[in-house]
Here is the input.
Amino acid sequence: MRAGHEGTGPGVITPDGCAVEFYARLPVGEEPDIVAAAVPAGARILELGSGVGRVTHPLLERGFKVTAVDESAEMLERVRGARTIRSAIEDLDLGETFDVVMLASFLVHTGDIEVRRGLLSACARHVAAGGCVLIQREGEDFHANVPRERVDPSGFTVRVVSVEPVGDGVNSVHVTYEFPDTTWTQTIHSRPLTQGQFEEALTEAGLKVDSYLTPDRIWVRAVPMD
Here is the structure.
């Protein structure tokens, strides 16, 4: 397990505490629509942290060409129709560039600053000239109003049970996912980033915000700096 990360529940748990079976159950959300509206039709997409392909598969159905990267072989076994590469994101160097690089799932909020630098550097070195990087941030109240819960229309309940400081601006976030037949839990180390801090991190990697794609500023379109 990665430091500060753990998970419980049926099936394989990945090094960052993700349960493969849980992610295989998750319904498709708004992510494919957000991506499709922000990039050219038929674009070549490098999806960093693809998991089981919950977003990959809808993007393929929309005509995009997707290369799916994940460090978990068990996650990638669920991906169909895309080129798959098993690798830690921060170590990835494919020697090629893509129209679009995606870094979703709040990965930019990793508690380890050096890992975050590695993630954003991977984005920068794989985006083509004239291309873009799509990043999903945490909501600005993600670490507030705890405990809280949300009932998904598909029938499971997400509970953010606790958010506890562990030092150096990092919080330990404990979440449960309760289905009628089983429960998974995940604990992660997450670093809250203000909009300014996020944009500074992009600058350090040679990227800059082109636009915030959603009113809550969770989805961001970044481009290489001139």
Notes: Residues 27-139+193-224 form a domain with the Rossmann fold fold (CATH 3.40.50.150). The CA atoms of residues 155 and 198 lie 34 Å apart.
